[in-house]
């Protein structure tokens, strides 16, 4: 190739033929500033060098050489005396395209830079990097460093013309690039250090895009990590496309756990001949950052850039697989890898769906780190979860991670209830919460038979919606609500997994109007009739507007938490009659309703109603009673307990609803206390004269014939006249009934005294004392 002198104005020029045939010759070099002529060592490959090109740029300061008549002083002569000025000389040290380590020999007292020129990965630019070696401490050459890249275009007359170029300036390092032209295949490189241009002239030949020449690879891609069923942790990656060479690259993996980005403590692993590596010694609970770079085996120093960061955090256990899809009846095997080396896999237990411990016959240890289990999926669930847990006595320590088995087309018993207002529908299933689901619906204004047949033949109808679901905490979803609804349309309902919408339950088809739970009847009334019949009436709910059937239940009010309910036969009218076994009893009554054809759901029971008794008059007579003393030696008070005998009702014209105790002290003060229908009553007596009366009462008034009792610690003994036994009994109004009850009730109370007095004995001022 002929380089015309016009390309280098104001420069001495030697044609290439002279460069090859004679020594010495002067080649021009380009710089912005003074132009120096440097000695040239001829490249054995001619004047064009291949990319990539790597060399060293070295500069040294030596005494100036003397020139006489165009002849250079012999290089082996002694240096000039110290009075001569020194000249800076800069040379490309290894003028060759053979890439590899730098030679060990360095120019004496020289300052050197490494320079690498290459084509980028996209083949759009030539890039030259000039760097001061990190191991060098020589800073004897002051000033800046300039790097210039220039296109040379080959013209038809086989001349080389210069086109535009790029100049880059720095001190310790420079990265300079120039865009490639379609017509250009030569880039000229010049370097300038402290206004001294390095020699010789460097012209680089750009290989075609399809060339398989070696170049700096791109960083590896697609970093992933997996664990094997033997517990081995594998990091894998792939090379970027297209490959620059069919030869397998070499790789370096580095990883650390340091949170410091400025001073990370990297650990390095070399990998050859494979795109994966087994990592050992990683501990659970730590965050590891990993990167990979690569190089061609022939270019051990030409590394790619580091890949993007990949992070690994190991939990105490790893599940293989974490997710699996299976059909009901399949056998599924899951492995649990213990990443905590202090735990032996043979001690681990397996828990199904966070509550059921599985029998040991279903699982076994593969080795010290791995346990495996084989299970069959549940029939009525969208998915099953498996936990591998470490036992601690009666409890277990389980990681929050788990393995999930998604079940194909499970038959889940979905049941729905339409509200009494006909504006919403709530759906539940199996009475068990399910986690990680979407509850889906498709509604069409068709009957469910028509809709189901249309979908069976592949004709989708209606609009798909997602329902609003109520969560039950960590246990999952327990119900879902659709609102608003079209009560006469058909709804297709199914469940989908949130993480895998291809996993869905078998659908059900529902018309909301067939699943209504109406509001309970209101306005319940109950009236007790003298004939012993309890008449009931109520008001039906406003919606839905169709005929109802009713159910009535009643129970005698005893104060118990769970009454003994009796249920009437189904009623189609909004009233009913009940025969009362106890005309004076108070009853609890409730009523509920549902569609007359039996579709839908029973309403809730109405509010509890307490019946009232039917009274045409007040009670005739109060109850009989007697008393028991309980003396307190430490005080002057005596506890008096009244034992009350309830008289049977002879005529059902009235009922006793409650008892009233009337007290009258020695000062004449009268007080009353309602005590209900009790069989005993107690009060404190201080020893003074005290009168007690017990009356029966209902809504019509109180009894007028009542039993009275007067208490006195020092009663005056009356002279008893000589009466016959019959006369005495009549005078004291003892009847055989009370006497028998007195003897029976006071059996064993030998130290007590009991006083009885009826209204017919009121003429006595004091009671006779009768020993028990």
Short description:
The chain has 4 helices and 53 strands. By secondary structure, it is mainly beta.
Helix content percent band: under 10%
Query: What share of residues are in beta strands?
Result: 35-45%
**How far apart are the termini?**
151 Å
Give the strand tally: 53
Q: What average pLDDT do the residues reach?
A: 77
Integer-rounded radius of gyration: 55 Å
Describe the main β-sheet briefly: 6 strands, mixed
- Helix/strand-derived category reads mainly beta
Total number of helices: 4
What gross morphology would you assign? elongated
Low-confidence stretches: 1-46, 66-81, 96-107, 718-772
Subcellular location: Membrane
Keywords: Glycoprotein, Membrane, Receptor, Signal, Transmembrane, Transmembrane helix
Protein name: Fibronectin type-III domain-containing protein
GO molecular function: cytokine receptor activity
């Amino acid at each position: 190739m002929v380089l015309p002198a016009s390309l280098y104005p104001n420069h001495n020029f030697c044609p290439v033929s002279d460069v090859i045939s004679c020594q010495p010759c002067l080649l021009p070099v380009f710089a912005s500033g003074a132009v120096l002529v440097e000695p040239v060592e001829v490249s054995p490959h001619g004047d064009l060098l291949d990319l990539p090109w790597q060399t060293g740029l070295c500069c040294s300061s030596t005494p100036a050489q003397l020139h006489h008549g165009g002849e250079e002083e012999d290089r082996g002569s002694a240096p000039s005396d110290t009075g001569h000025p020194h000249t800076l000389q800069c040379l490309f040290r290894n003028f060759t395209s053979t890439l590899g380590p730098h030679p060990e020999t360095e120019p004496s007292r020289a300052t050197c830079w490494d320079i690498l020129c290459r084509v980028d990965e996209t083949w759009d630019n030539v890039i030259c990097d000039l760097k001061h070696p990190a191991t060098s401490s020589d800073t004897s050459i002051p000033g800046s460093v300039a790097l210039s890249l220039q296109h040379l275009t080959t013209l038809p007359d086989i001349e080389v013309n210069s086109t535009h170029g790029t100049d880059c300036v720095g001190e310790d390092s420079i990265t300079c690039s120039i865009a490639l032209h379609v017509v250009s295949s030569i880039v000229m490189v010049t370097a300038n250090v402290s206004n001294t241009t390095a020699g010789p002239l460097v012209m680089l030949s750009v290989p075609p895009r399809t060339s398989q020449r070696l170049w700096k690879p791109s960083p590896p891609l697609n970093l992933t990590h997996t664990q094997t069923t033997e517990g081995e942790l594998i990091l894998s990656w792939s090379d970027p496309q297209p490959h620059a060479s069919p030869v397998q690259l070499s790789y370096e993996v580095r990883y650390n756990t340091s949170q410091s980005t400025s001073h990370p403590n990297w650990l390095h692993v070399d990998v050859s001949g494979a795109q994966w590596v087994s990592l050992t010694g990683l501990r659970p609970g730590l965050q590891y950052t990993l990167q990979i770079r690569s190089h061609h085996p022939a270019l051990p120093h030409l590394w790619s850039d580091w890949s993007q960061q990949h992070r690994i955090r190991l939990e105490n256990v790893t599940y293989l697989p974490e997710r699996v899809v299976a059909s009901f009846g399949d056998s599924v095997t899951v492995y649990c890898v213990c990443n905590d080396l202090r735990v032996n896999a043979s001690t681990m237990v397996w828990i199904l769906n966070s509550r059921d411990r599985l029998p040991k016959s279903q699982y076994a240890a593969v080795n010290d780190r791995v346990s495996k289990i084989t299970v069959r999926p549940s029939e009525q669930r969208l998915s099953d979860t498996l936990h591998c847990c470490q036992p601690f006595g009666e409890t277990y320590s389980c990681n929050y991670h788990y393995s999930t088995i998604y079940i194909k087309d499970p038959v889940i018993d979905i049941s729905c209830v339409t509200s009494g207002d006909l504006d919403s529908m709530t759906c539940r299933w199996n009475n068990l919460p399910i986690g990680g689901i979407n509850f889906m619906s498709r509604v069409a204004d068709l009957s469910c038979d028509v809709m189901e047949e249309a979908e069976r033949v592949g004709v989708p109808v209606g609009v798909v919606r997602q329902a609003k679901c109520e969560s039950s905490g960590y246990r999952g979803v327990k119900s879902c609500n659709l609102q608003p609804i079209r009560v006469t349309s058909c709804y297709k309902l199914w469940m989908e997994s949130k993480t895998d919408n291809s996993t869905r339950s078998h659908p059900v088809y529902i018309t909301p109007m067939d699943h209504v739970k109406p509001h309970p009847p209101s306005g319940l009334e109950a009236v007790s009739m003298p004939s012993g019949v309890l008449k009931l009436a109520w008001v039906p709910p406003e919606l839905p507007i169709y005929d109802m059937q009713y159910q009535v239940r009643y129970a005698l009010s005893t104060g118990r938490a769970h009454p003994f309910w009796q249920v009437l036969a189904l009623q189609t009218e909004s009233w009913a009659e009940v025969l009362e076994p106890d005309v004076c009893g108070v009853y609890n009554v409730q009523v509920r309703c549902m569609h007359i054809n039996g579709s839908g759901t029973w309403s809730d029971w109405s509010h509890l109603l307490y019946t009232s008794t039917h009274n045409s008059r007040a009670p005739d007579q109060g109850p009989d009673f007697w008393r028991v003393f309980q003396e307190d030696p430490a005080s002057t008070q005596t506890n008096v307990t009244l034992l009350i005998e309830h008289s049977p009702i002879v005529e059902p014209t009235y009922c006793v609803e409650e008892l009233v105790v009337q007290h009258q002290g020695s000062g004449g003060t009268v007080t009353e206390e309602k005590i209900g229908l009790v069989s005993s009553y107690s009060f404190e007596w201080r020893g003074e004269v005290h009168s007690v009366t017990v009356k029966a009462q209902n809504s019509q008034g109180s009894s007028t014939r009542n039993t009275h009792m007067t208490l006195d610690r020092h009663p005056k003994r009356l002279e008893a006249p000589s009466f016959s036994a019959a006369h005495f009994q009549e005078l004291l109004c003892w009847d055989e009934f009370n006497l028998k009850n007195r003897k029976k009730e006071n059996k064993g109370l030998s130290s007590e005294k009991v006083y009885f007095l009826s209204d017919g004995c009121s003429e006595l001022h004091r009671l006779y004392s009768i020993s028990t």
